[in-house]
Amino acid sequence: MARFAIALHGGAGTLIKGNMTPDKEKAYKKVLSEALQKGYTVLENDGAAVDAVQEAVMCMEDSALFNAGKGSVFSANGTHEMEAAIMEGKTRKAGAVALLTGIKNPISVARDVMEKSQHVFLLGQGALEFAKSMDHVLQDSKYFYDEFRYQQWQEIKGSSQFQLDHSKSKNSKFGTVGAVACDRRSNLAAATSTGGMTNKMIGRLGDSAVPGAGNYANNKTCAVSCTGSGEYFLRGVVAYDVSCLMEMKNMTLQEAAEEVIQRRILEIGGDGGLIAVDAEANISLPFNTEGMYRAFQTSDGVAGVKIYKD
């Protein structure tokens, strides 16, 4: 029987042990565990990798703890501009949305873009109209309001500053969310969702929804979901870079992922991490920050839910 596996992340950054209360740490691990179990159950029941990653990401989008869906940060105009992408490795079909407001689960809209449109990427009003036509759940601004996120925005509102969600060492909420999976048929998939940066310029697009930058899947190599300083991950084409090193340099998944996160992205000034899985259900979860919310489970019994460096 072929091995299968799933891994997920909830953001990487200044996560220093001791800075977070035990209750907060417990809350994060609880949601990570729930998301992991939802995705793993799909795989365990002979489901497809693409279904597993969507289920896991939707679970995290529904939590106010992470910077995606319900917990998305405030943009410069006080709205929540979300972005998400999903990709499956067998055919390399992909779907993505960005500058999307009012949608409960952006990742589900990205899935419909992939499967029910002739396009890969929809933005702004066009993405919203498409979501409405597909009967996706809309929420008013109260659903996305979070007092901590609001105060985070108030600190820099009206300025040209923006704040990366992972850049402060206080007791904060972190994270872009993502999942990667390998199913029993050795098919791969990746999904990523985010609310971007606090006080970001209207119209700003990060790496999360961009195939090849923040999200990528190819059965020949790997599936990757990234989290970190989006502008640098865009410039480094990070998700595809891992795949390319495996394909062109014959690196293992671990070698390629470590090369990209521990050397190549640092060389251009970026920080963050990624999760990746290959067609043999091997997993890699490198990061170059103090911590990364992450969880993983494989069919041969390897599992974990972690925040800090080991």
TrEMBL record:
CDD domains from the UniProt entry: Asparaginase_2 (cd04701)
Residues binding substrate: 204-207, 227-230
An annotated Gene Ontology molecular function: peptidase activity
Tree of life domain: Bacteria
Signal peptide annotation: none
Location of the active site: 176
Keyword Protease: yes
Entry keyword set: Autocatalytic cleavage, Hydrolase, Protease
Residues the record marks as site: Cleavage: 175-176
GO biological process terms, semicolon-separated: proteolysis
InterPro entries on file: Ntn_hydrolases_N, Peptidase_T2
PANTHER family xrefs: L-ASPARAGINASE (PTHR10188), N(4)-(BETA-N-ACETYLGLUCOSAMINYL)-L-ASPARAGINASE (PTHR10188:SF6)
Protein name: Isoaspartyl peptidase
Species: Salegentibacter echinorum
